Amino acid sequence: MTREKPKNLWLSRWGFILAATGSAVGLGNIWKFPYITGEYGGGAFVLMYLACILAIGIPVMMTEIALGRRGRGSPIDAIARVVRENNSNPLWKSVGLMAMLAGFMILCFYVVVAGWAFAYTWKMASGALAAPSVDALAKVFETHNASPWQLGGWSVLVALLTLWIVGKGVQAGVEKAFRWMMPGLALMLIVLVGYAWTSGSFSQGFAFLFTFDASKITGEALLAALGHAFFTLSLASGAILTYGSYIPDGQSIARTTFIVAIADTCVALLAGLAIFPVIFANGMDPSAGPGLIFMSLPLAFQQMPFGTVFGVLFFAMVSVAALTSAISMIEALVAYLNEKHGISRVKAAAGSGALLLVISLLAMLSFNLGAEWKLFGFTLFDGLDYLTSRWMMPLGGICMVILAGYCLRSEIMRDELGLAPAGYALWLFMVRYVSPVLILMVFLHALGWLGFDPIAQWYWIAGAIGALALLGELLAPRVRHELALR
Q1: Three-class SS of residue 378?
Q2: Is the dihedral of CA 299, 263, 394, 458 positive or negative?
Q3: Which of 111, 41, 70 lies closest to 408, judged by CA?
Q4: What is the mean pLDDT of residues 213-217?
Q5: Are 98 and 392 a contacting pair, CB within 8 Å?
Q6: Dist CA 52 CA 228 (whole Å)
Q7: Which one of 105, 176, 265, 303 has the fewest CB atoms closer than 10 angstroms to its CB?
Q8: 3-state secondary structure at position 284
Q9: Are 81 and 428 contacting, i.e. CB atoms less than 8 angstroms apart?
Q10: Cα 170 to Cα 167: distance, rounded to the nearest angstrom
């Protein structure tokens, strides 16, 4: 099959690295990672998280990038072209459709959450977060969410900024934006870590993040680490696959993936080093949950020298991280409309944006006027979160690795990945036998169906990997020779 000629390409390898890192570095790193690290005991959780990045994040990201570059298009078109080259069932393109829809649906409620970060940047600068206690700051948070005008206004701002950048194009919009946003985010994060160094509790925060305590390694912590490793890299949401389609031929997918994974992990750890010393310096609980950023930290900044300045800097950094992720979530849909239907980038962004604004504003009402509007017990905000994080993304991830590991001819992925024989053998083993089992555990745990401790009952995992290995031998005998490689 003749390779599809790329319509858009990154200007350089760093264009993709910055964009993919920006997609991965979002509220999950700066908001969620610190508080789940606090919940699960610090250093032991960090170690499990890094192991899960190697077991799930890197193999699946390599797979998505390879599929995107091979198919040169939006998730639907890229997978359709690859399976057509392989003479496989065209229904496989529904995996791309699910990924693209998942990314857009996430964005519909993500702009509301991102709006919190933008709003708190202003509130910190204006003194609106001057409160005597965490309870008082919780009231500020509740009051903000109770106002459709406040919550909706900030959500619309995030959406419009996202659409403006995406509408300008891959190089002039997305890549150019990331070239200043990501270095800016890194600089702000380094300044905040330096500020935390002066708090007097930096050693305590460092020890909390990196001291290893084997007693903290539990099944629940492992499942949390697995879930965060899968979701933090924007896998199965259409973003990485679409960004991968813009990578020029000849660039190393493996090397690029490792750089993105390392950068994403470094941001998460630096965020912890910026947050925990401030928390410990003020005698606060590091396992305070989601309120750690929007309630505990504002109070802590108020009690420290130059706290307002650094509080503004902190929430500005969170805002930039949220915006970089938002851009990636809508890029797949805009690319599909632009490439498949010939709609200009500006019109594609405008059309997608109109739908985004309607759904996101309805999701925003889940916190105030529409709090009682429920279907099957879910508000629209919670329903979008439930469908995407617990069903669509895990299922999409499993289908992606099954397609790459079992269904495609060996030369397709081997040629695209460009790995040495040993490296290809390791990637193939991971996407066939390890990643599917671990993603399945994330899926079942998210649904509340995993009723055992995966550490205490490790033999369940080993059995599942063995069953997949047997299934692979039965379903794909033509590729048995791959591990030896010609």
Answers
A1: strand
A2: negative
A3: 70
A4: 80
A5: yes
A6: 9
A7: 303
A8: coil
A9: no
A10: 9
Question: How high is the pLDDT of residue 26?
Answer: 79
Measured N-to-C along each axis, helices 75-85 and 307-341 cross at an angle, to the nearest 10 degrees, of 50
| Tokens 């993304």 -> residue | 393
Distance between CA atoms of residues 370 and 288, nearest Å: 28
Give the Cα separation of 37 and 208 in Å (integer).
Answer: 9
Look at residue 483 in the predicted model and tell me its pLDDT.
43
| CB of 454 closer than 8 Å to CB of 219 | yes
Instruction: Please name the residue that has the structure tokens 């702009």.
Output: 111
Distance from chain centroid for Cα 20: 10
- Give the whole-angstrom CA distance, residue 407 versus residue 475: 9
Range 116-144 average pLDDT: 92
The span from the CA of 412 to the CA of 50, in Å, is 29
Q: What is the mean pLDDT of residues 157-174?
A: 93
Cβ(116)–Cβ(137) below 8 Å: no
The 10 Å Cβ neighbour count of residue 184 is 13
Across 102-124, average pLDDT: 95
13-483 sits in which CATH class? mainly alpha
Q: Tokens 């590091």 appear where?
A: 286
- The set of residues, in sequence order, having a beta carbon less than 8 Å from that of 478 and lying 6+ positions away, is none
User: What pLDDT sits at residue 385?
Assistant: 92
Q: pTM, whole model, 2 decimals?
A: 0.90
CA distance 440 to 426: 20
Judged on CB neighbours under 10 Å (0-12, 13-18, 19+), 239 is buried
Residues 132-163: tens digit of each pLDDT: 888 899 899 999 999 999 999 999 999 999 99
Please report, for residues 52, 59, 60, the alpha-carbon distance to residue 261 in angstroms, rounded to integers and kept in the order given: 11, 11, 11
Name the nearest CA neighbour of 229 among 462, 24, 396: 24
Kindly tell me the burial class for residue 356, based on how many C-beta atoms sit within 10 Å of its own C-beta (0-12, 13-18, 19 or more).
buried
Determine the residue type at 354: A
Whether the CB-CB separation of 352 and 98 falls below 8 Å is answered with: no
The answer to whether residues 340 and 76 touch, using CB atoms and an 8 Å cutoff, is yes
Nearest by Cα to 432 from 472, 463, 399: 472
pLDDT at 456 over 80: no
- The residue behind tokens 């490689």 is 485
Among 250, 272, 262, which Cα is nearest to 189's?
272
Q: 29 exposed, middle or buried (CB, 10 Å; 0-12, 13-18, 19+)?
A: buried
